[in-house]
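Reopening this one. Same input as before:
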Amino acid sequence: MSAASIDLMETLGVQPAAFEGRTALITGSARGIGKATAMNLAARGARVVILDILPEGAAVAASINEAGGQAVFVQCDLADLAQLEAALSRIDKEVGNVDVLVNNALHLKPAPIVELELDDWEQTFRTNARAPFLLIKGLLPGMLERGWGVIVNVVAYEGAPFGGAYSSTKLALRSLAQTVAREIGNESGVSSFSFVPGIVDTPLMREDVIPRMAGLFGMSEDQVLEMVAHNPGYEGFMPVDHCAAALVYALDHAEEYHGQVADPFEPLDRAGVIEMPRVEVGEEIDVSGPLSGIYIKQYLGEVSSTNKALEHRIEVRTRELAEARDRSEQLLLSILPPPIARRLEAGEELIADYFDDATVLFADIVGFTTLSSKMAPPRVVQVLDVLFSRFDSVADRYDVEKIKTNGDSYMAVGGVPLPQDDHLERVARMALDMLPVIDAIGTAFDLPLSARIGIHSGNVVAGVIGRRRFIYDIWGDTVNTASRMESYGEGGRIHCSDVVRSKLADSFDFEPRGVVEIKGKGTMSTYFLTGERR
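Same output, byte for byte:
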């Protein structure tokens, strides 16, 4: 794939992993638009199926694989029903689910209607209309079952002289995409739309269409080229890289185009790749003349179609914004207590609160640093994830606020951020429930897990710090003392200050630890919490 294509997709905002884990089937992908689209999708993470009658498709697949992508080539004459059915069966067995279908293959033989042979008409129909119908019929049920998929029919402008069969089948293809969109609705997760590429600089145009039309018109190839190669924003042909990048953009924004016709010009113009001509429309519409009825009908039809397209895009964007807001709120709630998150959302910039009475808990896994040095990194993370997730569940049960984890240390507080009369009892019960959790997880992982738990009560300051990464934290002597209770404790026991014991003596059992020399605190009489009286 060319560097120009990569730059174009980046300019259009198509992320490098936009199609990671998806499988895309592109017909007519041995050359031209299909080839460039296949290579672009592969560069954006998709596994690509090259489905084409031309053997050059093998080279396209090889090129993708050599560049580090994933691609397979399935040679097939789409006009041959047996070959198409065999190809679908092979894709199902060797590739599996197809998430993106791009019907790009075409058969075109320029000729006046009166000179078009029936065999040519039927060949055009089988390739351009019947094959896409059968591909959609075969792949759509799986997309609907999985709840995600994209179907795109590459179509053309109608009424092209000497292209009656081609234009007619492409018009049918556009109708087919719209029919599918209406049948499956807007909530299925599958999008179906058409893509009209414009006049693109492909081998088909250069080597086949232009020479044939020159012969039909009795003109030189340069004259035919000047006559047919008209694209808004371009002088002559559109580069194939531009068209393919815009098609991948449309695939990436498929929900916005559901039931509509996309083109490459609008996104390329919006991204500044091209500059579309602008027409100043007058305030008055000329309704005079014999064709006024046709003009008005056409004008109103275009207005209605535009309004419908805008309504759908607004609906999609509104839903996307709502989903993004929900994700943002969930993320905020995952790192901050709900009352604090609501205060931030309301615009409060500095959050700092003083609490006269709160209970702080610290827990630390005994010898985990030494133990983890003998374990593979994924297992270390797995053990801590399971353990701390269970601690979170215990904290939720007693409405105790987890503050943070630091390595193999866990910190929580009761009575913050909302005051609680019974915060000390809640934290004590939480601590007692944490001990069997540690034993159970140690047994499950066949590890000698044990934890020191420390508790102390008193006043604290709580608030939010940071701008890029929020954290809700607590400070004060109470926090320091609770930390000392943990560090001077014993494995498998809950070490408490005399403040805790004196407040809980009527409802909980304690075992005297004695007088302990605590760094920074001097001598303290401490206790082990052993249980709750029933």
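So the earlier flakiness isn't reproducible anymore. For the record, The CA atoms of residues 33 and 132 lie 17 Å apart.
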